[in-house]
Amino acid sequence: DATTADPVAVPDSIDSPQAKLVYLYLRTTAGATVEELNASLDLRRLALFPVLDTLESRDLIDRDGERYVAS
Questions:
Q1: pTM to 2 decimal places
Q2: DSSP 8-state class, residue 31
Q3: Helix, strand, or coil here: 41?
Q4: Consecutive H or E run containing 64
Q5: Burial of 10 (0-12, 13-18, 19+ CB in 10 A)
Q6: 31 — alpha (psi -120 to 50), left (phi > 0) or beta?
């Protein structure tokens, strides 16, 4: 069915709601900068940095210059 998208699984290692939101956003897009995440998800930039650092340290996302992408 064309209207049904495949669900994106969230790894069990992601605990916080903000981290889950950021991870899902990056999995379903071509990646984003901190500014794009701020505008799209309405999360404060200061709140995004620790979330991104945690996801990156767990090898769930990668940083490509200023962009973050799902691994």
A1: 0.87
A2: -
A3: helix
A4: strand 61-64
A5: middle
A6: left
